[in-house]
Structure formats: C-alpha cells, structure tokens
Amino acid sequence: LIDQTEKQLSQATTPLTDLAAKLADSRRKVADSLCKQICGYLAGLGMPNAQLQISLTNTDSFTPNGRDSVNFLFTANRNHELQNISKIASGGEISRLMLSIKAILSKSVALPTVIFDEIDTGVSGDIAHKMGELMSLMAKQMQVITITHLPQIAAKGAVQYRVSKNDEGGTTHTIVDKLSDTERVDEIARMLSGKNITAEARENAKSLLKG
After folding, report:
1. Looking at the whole model, is its pTM more than 0.85?
2. Could you tell me the end-to-end alpha-carbon distance of the chain, in angstroms, rounded to an integer?
3. Which one of 98, 135, 164, 202 is most buried, by most CB atoms within 10 A?
C-alpha cells in the first residue's frame, strides 16, 4: 500500500512541478513591469522617489499559489535600502500602494465593483485629493464604493451616503441615508469643521463638490 501511494504521489507531483515552474516563470516576466506601473501611480500620489521590487524565491513545498515565496520590497526615499513592506512602509504609504495595485488590477480584471474600506488611512490634504481623483477615474470603468472619513474623498463621489448608529430600545441600529445635494454640502462641511458647521466650512464644501 505504501509503494502504491508513493507511486501515485510521484505521478501527481511531476505535472504539479511543471505547472508551478510555468507560474513562476510568468511571474518573473511581469514583475519588473508591474513594479514600474505601481511606481508610476505612486509618483502621481506624492511619492516620486518610491522604489518597489518583487522578490520571488522558490520553496520546497507546494501552496495553492505555486512554489514561490513572494515578497514586496519597498522604499519611499531615494538611495534608501529596499526592505519588506511590512517593516518599512507607513500607514499612508501602504494605503497608496494598495490603491495603486488595485487601480492596475482593475484594468486587467473585469471587476463589476471595487470596495475601498478606509484605504485613505494615514493621508490627508492634497494626497487625499489625488487619491480621490484616481478613484474617480476607476469609477468610469466599474462601480467604486468607498468608505471614508475624508472630505476630499467623499466629495469625489457621484452619490454619497451617511452611515450612522442609533441606540434605541436597548438595541443598536445602523442607519444608511442617501444624501441630497444640500445634505452633501452640510455633511462635507461637518467633516471639515466638526459638529458646529461654520459658513467657511460650507463654502469649502461647495468648492470641493464642484471639483
């Protein structure tokens, strides 16, 4: 029984090894091009000196994704050593990396909907504005749903919803309201100035909504 099992394992391993080798070869062929594309997006998101490298290392064991150990090495600064993203990238840098990668994937994979759950974490100001513009470009090809606390991002949406919670009768209810044009101005102004909405915040909100 052991001999038979080992023979079956050998017969299954040979084609699996060939497929894993083809997959590894395909990854190596596109790795440099993918890194260049991502860095191109990062430059537009305020990281002109970003460098990215995809490290592929063959492993002894098979996984659902082949036999490669894939690591993304990164630095946001010129002439700095590339290191594993998890060790060197800040929250804002990771947010921009993820948005860049998803923007590239959306061009090659026919996705009907993309959901960004606070992908703008760690950014603000002009960078948030640029991230919103990139999401707007993606929305021309697919539905983009973005969960955000940033007014620069919220103002880019074609439609805006406000999510709130209400404690009533010992139970917490989540409420989702579609905002009218007037309500959008007030909501974005609130995001800008807090609970007490100022006239300046309303004017700023109107400016953001005009784009």
Report:
1. no
2. 71
3. 135
